[in-house]
C-alpha cells in the first residue's frame, strides 16, 4: 500500500507539473478560501475560544441582573459591597469569586498630570486568576490588611509605554491620587484584568464609599465548580438575588432574572454574532472555491479518459484510480493550503486593524497559532474530499469499451460529467447570491446608520474628559472654580469657535434621574437623562431651540435652578400642555453627595430631539441643567474649532494645565471619531468582511460560469460547424450558447433566493433600519448576477460564432 501511495504521489506530481496553468489556477482558487477561513478562525480562536491566560478560564463567569421588562439584552453586572460579600460567601456554585471596581488614578509628573485606569482588586485576585508576575511580586494577603503599607501592581503594557520597560522602578514609591504607593510587581504581557493600567489591593467593607462619594459597586467574577452548569448557577443566584432585592429596591428591577455568562461572552457581546456571520461568509466562499476546482477537475478528467481506460485495462482497480485522483486532489489542496496560510498570515494585520476597538478582551493576542494550523490542516483534508471525491468517482465509473472505442468525444461526450459540471455551477451561483444578499443587507444597514439624524452637528468638535482630583473638587463651587477660568481661556483661543463643560459624551445618554412634574399623576416611574452643562453647550453642538432659550453665563455662574428639555420630554410628560415656565423635580440632584434640598427646576427652553441612546435606540426624555448645580459626576469639555480639532489638542491641554496642573486629560479625540468608534465600527467590520468575500465569490463564480460554458462550447465545435453549414446565423449560435448558460444561472438564483431567506433570519440581529427581506436588495442582487452570467456566457458565445464550418467538419 505504501509503495502504491508513493507511486501515486510521484505520478501526481509529474501530472500536475505538466499542467502548470491548471495547477496554479486551482491552488490560487483554494488559497483564497483557505486563507480567508484561516484568518477569520484566528480571530475567533483568540477572541472567543482562548482569549484569556487565566486558570480554568472556561469556567470563569459573570452574574447579571436582567430587567425582564426591558427587551434589550444583558443586565447589571455590578454589585454593592454588601451584595458582593454575601453573594461570594453564600452561593453554592462557585469555587471562588473576586471583584474589581474602576477608579481614575492621577499621577503628577513634571510635564503635568496623567490619568491611569486603575482597578481596585479584592483579596485573592492574583491567586484566583493564576498568573505569576513578570517582575517583583503580586499582591499578597498581608497587603489587604487594615493599616498595611499602600502598594500597587503595574500592567506590562503601561510599564512599556509609560516607563520604557525600566526594571528599576520595582519597589519605588509613586504618588497616586495623593497617596504614596509602592510598586511591588509588573504582570506579564497578557495579564490585563479589567483592561486596567494598574491594580490597587482593596478589601471591600459593607458601607464602602468610592472616591466620588457614592456607594462603591463591584464587578464580580466567579469560577464555576467542576460539573456545575450555567443554568444551575443561575438558579442558585436567583434565590440569593430574591432575598437581597427587598433590602435594596433601588438596585433591583421590579421583575428580574439572573443571567450567567462566560467572561468571553460578557466582554465580546454582540460582536460574537458578527464574527460567526463573517465565518459563515468565509465558509460559503470556501465552498465556491471548491466548486470551481471540482469543475476544473471534471473538465480535466475529460482529457484523461483514455488514460484511465488504459490503466483500467492493464489491471488497475477502481479503488486504485480513486486513490490516484484523491492524492492529486490532496496535493492541490495542500498547495492551496500552504499558499492560503501565507495569505492568512499576511492579511491578519490588516484584519486586526479594522476590528472594532474596545469590544474584544484586552488579553487577546490575535495570531496564527497551533489551533489555527490544525484548523487549516482540517480544512485542507476536507476541501480535498469535497472537490476531489465526486470527480474521482465519476472518472473511475466509466465504461472501458466506450472510452477505448470513441476517443473523439471523451468524457465530455457523455451526459453524466456535463450534468455534474452544470450542478456545480448552479451550486456556486446559489452560494454567491447568498453571499451578495448578505453583503447587500449589511451595506444597506450600514448606510442607514450613517444617515441617522443626530439632532446635533458632531464635526469639528474636540472631546476631553477631565478627571478632577477628588480631594480638591468635591463641591459645586470648587468645580465651578476650575471650569469658569478654563472655559474663558478656551473660548479666547484663536481657532476656537466656542467651548462648553459637559457631564457625558453626546449622543450616548446622560445621568439617569427620576423626575416629577406637578399635577401629573403616574403609576410608573418617570425618568430622564440629565446633562450638566455650561451656557455654550447648545451652541457648540448646534442643537436647535424650538421655544425659549439657553442659560446665560450669569445664570450658570449663580447656579440658577433652570432646565432645558427635549421634545420627547415635552410629549411624554406634558402632552399638549405648554411646559414653558413649569417646574420639574430633578430627584437625582437630591441624591448626590452634595445633595440639593429642593431640586425643583423651571423650564426655560425646549430643543429639538437629539440622539441620546446611541444611533440605534430611540430617543429618551432628556434635560439640561447648569453644571454648577452639583460638584458630583464626571466632567469634560467639548471644544468646537475652526479647523481640524486634533491640531488644537496640545493647546487645549496646556490651557487645562495652566488652570490646574493636577487635572488630567483622558478620552481625548474628536466627537466624530467617537461616534464612528462606538456606533459604526462594528457594522462597518461586518459589512466590509462579507462584502470582500462576496466580491471574491462573484469573481470565482464568473470564472466558473465562463470556464464551463467555454469548455462546453469547445466540445460542441463540431455541432456548431454543422449548424452553421446548414445556414444558422451567428446570432442563432450566440443565443444557443447564452441560453444554455443562463438556464444554469437562473436556477442557481432561484435556489440562492431560498437560501437567502434562511440567511436573513441569521443576520437579522446585525441589521438596523432595513428589513431582513429588503426588496431592493432581493431585486438588485439577482439582476446583478444575471448580468454577470450574461457576460460570462457572451464571451464564449461570441467565440463560437467565429468557428469555420470547413474546419469544424474537416475531421469528421
Q: Please bin the fraction of helical residues.
A: 40-55%
Biggest β-sheet strands, sense, barrel:
11 strands, mixed
Low-pLDDT residue spans: 407-413
Average predicted local confidence, pLDDT: 87
Distance between the termini: 45 Å
State the shape.
elongated
Given helix and strand content, the structural type is: alpha+beta
Strand content: 15-25%
Number of strands: 22
Number of H- or I-type helical stretches: 23
Alpha carbon gyration radius: 34 Å
What do you see in this structure?
This protein is of the alpha+beta class. The protein is 50% helix and 17% strand. The protein is built from 23 helices and 22 strands. The strands form three sheets. Strands 1, 2, 3, 4, 5, 6, 7, 8, 9, 10 and 11 form an eleven-stranded mixed sheet that branches. A six-stranded mixed beta barrel has the order 14-15-20-17-19-18. Strands 13-21-12-22 form a four-stranded antiparallel sheet. Strand 3 and strand 4 form a beta hairpin. Helix 8 (271-303) packs parallel to helix 19 (671-715) and helix 13 packs across helix 21 (730-763). It is elongated, with a radius of gyration of 34 Å. It starts with a helix and ends with a helix. Mean pLDDT is 87; it is low at 407-413.
Amino acid at each position: 500500500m505504501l509503495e502504491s501511495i508513493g507511486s501515486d504521489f510521484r505520478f501526481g506530481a509529474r501530472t500536475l507539473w505538466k499542467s502548470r496553468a491548471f495547477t496554479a489556477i486551482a491552488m490560487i482558487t483554494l488559497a483564497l478560501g483557505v486563507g480567508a477561513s484561516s484568518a477569520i478562525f484566528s480571530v475567533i480562536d483568540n477572541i472567543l475560544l482562548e482569549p484569556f491566560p487565566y486558570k480554568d478560564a472556561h469556567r470563569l463567569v459573570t452574574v447579571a441582573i436582567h430587567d425582564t421588562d426591558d427587551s434589550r439584552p444583558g443586565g447589571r453586572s455590578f454589585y454593592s459591597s454588601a451584595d458582593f460579600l454575601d453573594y461570594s460567601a453564600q452561593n453554592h456554585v462557585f469555587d471562588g469569586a473576586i471583584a474589581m471596581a474602576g477608579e481614575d488614578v492621577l499621577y503628577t509628573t513634571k510635564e503635568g498630570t496623567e490619568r491611569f485606569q486603575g482597578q481596585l482588586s479584592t483579596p485573592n485576585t492574583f491567586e484566583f486568576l493564576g498568573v505569576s508576575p513578570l517582575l517583583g511580586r503580586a499582591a499578597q494577603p498581608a497587603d489587604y490588611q487594615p493599616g498595611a503599607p499602600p502598594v500597587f501592581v503595574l500592567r506590562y503594557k503601561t510599564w512599556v509605554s509609560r516607563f520604557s520597560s525600566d526594571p528599576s522602578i520595582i519597589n519605588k514609591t509613586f504618588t497616586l491620587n495623593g497617596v504614596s504607593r509602592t510598586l511591588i510587581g509588573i504582570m506579564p504581557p497578557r495579564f490585563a484584568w479589567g483592561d486596567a493600567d494598574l491594580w490597587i489591593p482593596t478589601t471591600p467593607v459593607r458601607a464602602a464609599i468610592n472616591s466620588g462619594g457614592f456607594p462603591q459597586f463591584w464587578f464580580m467574577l466567579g469560577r464555576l465548580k467542576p460539573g456545575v452548569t450555567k443554568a444551575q448557577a443561575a438558579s442558585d443566584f436567583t434565590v440569593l438575588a430574591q432575598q437581597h432585592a427587598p433590602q435594596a429596591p433601588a438596585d433591583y428591577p421590579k421583575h428580574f432574572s439572573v443571567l450567567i455568562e462566560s467572561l468571553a461572552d460578557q466582554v465580546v457581546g454582540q460582536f460574537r454574532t458578527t464574527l460567526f456571520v463573517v465565518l459563515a461568509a468565509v465558509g460559503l466562499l470556501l465552498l465556491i472555491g471548491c466548486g470551481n476546482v471540482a469543475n476544473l477537475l471534471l473538465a480535466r478528467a475529460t482529457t484523461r479518459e483514455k488514460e484511465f481506460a488504459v490503466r483500467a485495462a492493464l489491471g488497475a482497480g477502481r479503488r486504485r484510480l480513486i486513490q490516484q485522483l484523491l492524492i492529486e486532489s490532496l496535493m492541490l489542496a495542500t498547495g492551496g493550503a500552504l499558499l492560503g496560510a501565507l495569505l492568512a498570515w499576511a492579511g491578519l494585520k490588516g484584519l486586526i486593524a479594522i476590528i472594532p476597538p474596545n469590544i474584544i478582551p484586552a488579553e487577546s493576542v490575535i495570531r496564527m497559532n497551533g489551533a489555527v494550523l490544525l484548523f487549516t490542516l482540517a480544512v485542507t483534508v476536507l476541501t480535498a474530499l469535497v472537490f476531489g471525491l465526486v470527480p474521482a468517482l465519476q472518472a473511475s465509473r466509466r465504461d472501458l469499451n466506450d472510452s477505448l472505442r470513441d476517443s473523439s468525444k471523451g468524457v465530455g461526450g457523455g451526459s453524466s460529467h456535463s450534468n455534474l459540471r452544470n450542478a456545480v455551477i448552479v451550486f456556486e451561483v446559489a452560494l454567491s447570491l447568498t453571499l451578495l444578499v448578505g453583503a447587500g443587507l449589511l451595506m444597506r444597514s450600514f448606510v442607514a446608520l450613517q444617515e441617522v439624524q443626530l439632532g446635533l452637528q458632531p464635526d469639528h468638535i474636540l472631546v476631553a474628559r477631565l478627571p478632577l482630583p477628588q480631594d480638591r473638587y468635591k463641591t459645586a463651587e470648587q468645580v465651578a472654580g476650575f471650569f469658569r477660568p478654563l472655559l474663558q481661556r478656551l473660548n479666547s483661543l484663536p481657532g476656537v469657535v466656542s467651548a462648553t463643560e459637559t457631564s457625558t459624551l453626546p449622543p450616548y445618554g446622560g445621568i439617569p434621574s427620576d423626575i416629577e412634574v406637578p399635577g401629573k399623576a403616574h403609576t410608573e416611574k418617570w425618568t430622564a437623562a440629565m446633562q450638566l452643562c455650561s451656557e455654550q453647550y447648545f451652541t457648540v453642538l448646534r442643537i436647535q431651540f424650538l421655544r425659549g432659550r439657553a442659560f446665560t453665563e450669569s445664570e450658570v455662574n449663580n447656579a440658577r435652578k433652570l432646565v432645558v428639555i427635549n421634545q420627547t420630554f415635552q410629549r411624554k410628560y406634558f402632552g399638549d400642555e405648554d411646559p414653558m415656565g413649569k417646574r420639574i423635580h430633578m430627584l437625582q440632584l437630591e441624591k448626590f453627595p452634595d445633595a440639593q434640598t429642593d431640586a425643583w427646576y423651571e423650564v426655560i427652553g425646549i430643543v429639538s430631539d437629539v440622539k441620546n441612546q446611541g444611533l440605534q435606540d430611540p430617543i429618551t426624555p432628556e434635560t439640561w441643567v447648569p453644571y454648577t448645580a452639583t460638584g458630583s459626576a464626571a466632567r469634560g469639555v467639548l471644544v468646537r474649532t475652526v479647523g481640524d480639532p486634533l491640531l488644537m489638542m496640545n493647546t487645549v491641554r496646556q490651557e487645562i494645565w495652566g488652570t490646574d496642573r493636577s487635572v488630567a486629560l483622558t478620552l481625548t479625540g474628536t466627537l466624530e471619531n467617537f461616534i464612528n468608534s462606538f456606533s459604526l465600527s462594528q457594522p462597518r467590520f461586518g459589512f466590509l468582511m462579507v462584502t470582500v468575500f462576496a466580491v471574491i465569490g462573484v469573481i470565482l463564480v464568473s470564472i466558473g460560469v465562463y470556464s464551463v460554458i467555454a469548455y462546453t462550447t469547445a466540445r460542441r465545435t463540431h455541432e456548431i460547424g454543422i449548424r452553421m453549414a446548414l445556414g444558422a446565423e451567428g446570432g442563432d449560435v450566440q443565443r444557443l450558447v447564452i441560453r444554455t448558460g443562463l438556464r444554469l444561472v437562473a436556477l442557481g438564483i432561484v435556489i440562492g433566493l431560498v437560501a437567502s431567506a434562511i440567511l436573513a433570519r441569521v443576520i437579522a440581529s446585525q441589521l438596523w433600519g432595513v428589513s431582513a427581506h429588503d426588496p431592493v436588495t432581493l431585486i438588485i442582487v439577482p439582476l446583478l448576477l444575471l448580468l454577470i452570467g450574461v457576460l460570462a456566457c457572451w464571451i464564449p458565445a461570441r467565440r463560437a460564432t467565429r468557428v469555420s464550418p470547413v474546419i469544424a467538419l474537416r475531421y469528421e
